[in-house]
Task: inverse folding
């Protein structure tokens, strides 16, 4: 399985499996947490689909519903607002064609700490560079040059 | 998903006891691999998020790690595959603990099922507060292993 025998065949096989996984994910994965703007753009297609909104701001609130701005779309949400107007929230909801509107399943206010996401991303890049540098201390990538078989 | 310091700390705990620094470096790379693949597909490849999901699924990671292991020289491939996959699975386990309000984070049986699961132990933004403890853990482990190495090296 790991020998040099049929090396190209094994590598090609692994790459084909990766491609097939990609095709499978592309064909069956669309319904995994569809973006809100897609639901609003094609309401009939996404009716009663469950989605997760990582971040949105409450722009207005009433007793039984509230309105959120996701940055791309403003939409009404059925349910009690999990925070006050102006606060950032995250929620899971079911999309409904009528309106269109969302029916909140679970929601919570995002703490101020969530604004430091950029810091996590920046630190992650530094960590990755460190890991790659450590790897390069132990292993060298030396592909063979293309060699001419014989003179014409 | 990109909270590599926390992931690296988990990989450091698992990998530091390994005596071979070369094997350790592959474990550390394996711990970063799921996010490296995910972000590469997302930002460099312009792929939609659902196309990137196999990079965070247990079965989906096997061909990625196998293909990567084939790039090593022959006698290292088996170990490289084990270290890469072990590191990547550790990453998936840490991500599995996240709380996405019940929407799920890991496609545990992809490609046979599209069901996403989560344990809900911590919120994604908690990784900001976990950064300092992660650094502390790495420092303590490194210090302990250096002290032990010095004790072994000193005669009597």
Result:
């Amino acid at each position: 399985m790991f020998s040099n025998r049929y090396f190209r065949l094994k590598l090609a096989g692994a790459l084909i499996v990766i491609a097939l996984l990609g095709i499978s994910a592309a064909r069956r994965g669309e319904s995994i947490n569809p973006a809100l703007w897609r639901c609003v753009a094609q309401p009939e297609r996404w009716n009663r689909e469950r989605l997760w909104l990582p971040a949105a701001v409450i722009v207005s609130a009433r007793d039984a519903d509230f309105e959120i701005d996701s940055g791309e779309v403003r939409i009404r949400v059925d349910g009690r607002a999990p925070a006050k107007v102006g606060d950032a929230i995250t929620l899971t909801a079911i999309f409904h064609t009528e309106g269109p509107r969302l029916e909140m399943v679970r929601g919570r206010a995002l703490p101020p700490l969530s604004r430091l996401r950029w810091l996590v991303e920046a630190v992650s890049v530094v960590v990755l560079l460190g890991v790659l540098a450590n790897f390069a201390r132990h292993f060298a990538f030396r592909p063979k040059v293309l060699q001419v078989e014989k003179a014409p | 998903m990109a909270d590599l310091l926390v992931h690296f700390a988990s990989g450091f705990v698992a990998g530091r006891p390994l005596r071979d620094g070369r094997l350790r470096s592959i474990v550390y790379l394996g711990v970063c691999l799921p996010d490296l693949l995910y972000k590469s597909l997302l930002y460099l490849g312009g792929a939609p998020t659902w196309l990137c999901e196999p990079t965070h699924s247990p079965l989906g990671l096997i061909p990625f790690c196998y293909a990567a292991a084939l790039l090593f020289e022959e006698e290292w491939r088996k170990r490289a595959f084990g270290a890469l996959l072990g590191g990547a699975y550790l990453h998936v386990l840490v991500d599995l603990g996240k709380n996405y309000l019940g929407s799920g984070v890991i496609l545990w049986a992809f490609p046979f099922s599209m069901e996403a699961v989560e344990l809900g132990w911590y919120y994604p933004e908690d990784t900001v507060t976990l950064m300092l403890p992660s650094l502390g853990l790495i420092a303590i482990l490194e210090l302990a292993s250096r002290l032990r190495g010095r004790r072994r090296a000193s005669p009597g």
Q: What stands out?
A: The mean pLDDT of chain A is 90. Chain A touches chain B through 53 residues (CB under 8 Å). The CA atoms of residues 12 and 27 of chain A lie 22 Å apart. Chain A has three helices and five strands.
